[in-house]
Amino acid sequence: MVDYHAANNQSLYSAGGQQTYMEQENDWDRDLLLDPAWEKQQRKTFTAWCNSHLRKAGTQIENIEEDFRDGLKLMLLLEVISGERLPKPERGKMRVHKINNVNKALDFIASKGVKLVSIGAEEILDGNAKMTLGMIWTIILRFAIQDISVEETSAKEGLLLWCQRKTAPYKNVNVQNFHISWKDGLAFNALIHRHRPELIDYDKLRKDDPVTNLNNAFEVAERYLDIPKMLDAEDIVGTLRPDEKAIMTYVSCFYHAFSGAQKAETAANRICKVLAVNQENEHLMEDYEKLASDLLEWIRRTIPWLENRAPEKTMTEMQQKLEDFRDYRRVHKPPKVQEKCQLEINFNTLQTKLRLSNRPAFMPSEGRMVSDINGAWHKLEGAEKGYEEWLLNEIRRLERLDHLAEKFRQKAAIHESWTDGKEAMLTQKDYETASLSEIKALLKKHEAFESDLAAHQDRVEQIAAIAQELNELDYYDSPSVNARCQKICEQWDALGSLTQNRRESLERTEKQLESIDELYLEYAKRAAPFNNWMEGVLQNYLWIGLITAHDQFKSTLPEANKEREAIQAIQAEVQKIAQYNGIKLAGNNPYTTITPQSIDKKWEKVRSQLVPQRDQALQEELARQQSNDHPRRQFANQANMIGPWIQNKMAEIGRISIEMNGTLEDQLTHLRQYEQSIIEYKPNIDQQEGNHQLIQEALIFDNKYTAYTMEHLRVGWEQLLTTIARTINEIENQILTRDAKGISQEQLHEYRTSFNHFDKVRNSFPCLTLCEMDLNKGDAEFARIMGIVDPNNSGAVTFQAFIDFMSRETTDTDTADQVIASFKILAGDKNYITAEELRRELPPDQAEYCIARMAPYTGPDAVPGALDYMSFSTALYGESDL
Q1: Which residues form a coiled coil (predicted)?
Q2: Of the candidates 545, 538, 598, which has an alpha carbon nearest to the alpha carbon of residue 410?
């Protein structure tokens, strides 16, 4: 018998062991002792198998142990199945000649790695049936079964796994061995139907009719597949356990007959894999385009809103605009920041997948590049910063406008009250019937009025200056202010003209006037400026500025009191003279309406009311300014803690991405934990936003305790979140590259070390670091490599692009030529393929994907419905257009 080992010591009988000669001999003895029908099945099967090959040489055998005795047909059989020439046989009839021929055949078998034990030429020459069947079984194993390989299993196990895979979809078929699993004949019919469904109506077969099933399979195989009938249905059904070797021999014929279909299946699997990758990439591209479009549309809608500088009329309306802007910063913008970050991550992941699958880089639609989005985002942030500054300036402007408008109304009201009746006074003709003394009195009174009028000139100029400032600051109620100011100015001009006319009238009679009461006149002259000074104090006192100015004003009060006492002394002197001379005063001072009582009353109001009130107001303002110092310090303390914290975190992220401590998974876990710790810091940012709002509501616009503004902290926080997300995405892409390209941890560490060495010097990967890839091949090769690692001509090479290039140079990936070769197998070596062939060989969704995208084939051998798979395959890899 035979101890048959492959050259690599892998047994053909089992996946894990070797069968010795004695074990096989015992198997053969046990086969014959337990059921003689097995020997009958083997004789028939082995004879048919040998004849299926001998007929190619124009001969056959009738009796397996008799016809191989002289060794001639045995040598011929080995030449046919091996395709090799054996030594020339001896044609003599003597025993020695026949023994020599059999030995040549046995030597040839041994030369193929088969160890023959206890099988000699004498046993074959003597017609030993058991030895002859064992020799033929060894030949079948070596030349028909050994080379079968399915999913890392070979020989018997590979053939069994092939049968299981092919018959898995069929009901009532469960192939577990090469004996009883085939008794009902359904497994043979399933194998045929799987590869040639048009030959068998499988649904009409019945499990309870095994003879019919077996005969149907044997007849169809012999007629259409050129597989000779090697078994009898009655022998298989009538045997408790059909012979395993006979079944295995017959089934191996089906395997070899359908080997072409197996190649087609392999080709279909390759195409399915390529198409699946392409479909996934297309979905990622569509998702990127939609997300980019939505983000750009939001930016496009938001920028005009931020660029709108139409001022509001009131402080309440501007405060509402500021509140809307705060809602935008807190509610609307943060999700868009996340979307922008996710968009960049998706873009990088897509480019990595395209590089790993040997596809051309993804180029978004015009205007939707990552750089375009970054540019739009930069414009948005510029508009945002300008909008906030404009809001604060507008609030300051409106606050000043409110103060100026109130000041204008008060000054205008006082002036209008003063001018009331003045025109009637200046137009009366009382001097025509007055006596000389009365004329003198009228003239002096008019001089006093002119002095009063001159004193009011400054007030009118102040009113006009305030109105001009309101116009320059674009006060919303400027028309009414201008109308009132115009009326005051016109009235003032009219008073000037009337005053001049009255003076001329009085001077015409002045020659007739001799004297007037100088004492009254002196009183009037001194009382009028003093009274105007007090009225000015009453009008402007609330606008006296800081404590220093107020103190300076109070220092002038003693001198003013001396002037008041001097004026009152004049009035007292009048009373004294009148009393001394017995003169009855006719009434009030004819030269002025200012009485000593009114002067004392105004003086008392200034001294006892206005000065204490201003003291209290200034102390309250001082307290308010001191209270504003608390929110300044509170904001500064928090800002001085958050700012350095963000800077330290940014530096630590850069250090983590360079050091590469541990595996990529360890780094990814560390970075995600680090990201979580950063997210947990968010309440500090929110708290600082609250501090910032308190400062703005208090209208505090400077802070000497810190150099950090809320804008600095916001930008730093957003950059920190984006940086940690980008770093995590880079590690994820490195893991994806490593797993797809089979890069070891040591190789990846070596790549990073080399990259960091040059990056430390130049901050980017320079061209000279590609010297390990032999860039000295010339300018063309250098341009090719730079086109791969730097497709955008940015002048810098990222670590991810470096890994992709290094791994691409050392690993094999699918190419357009491989996909074309696969389609050619499915098409039966034709230059085109049909929709029917695609639907038969590919899953439905991928078959329809190809049909929808393949262009019609227009070659000279085209048929109706022919599709061009060559242009389709090259388009998948960016080498042509669909």
Answers
A1: 439-473
A2: 538
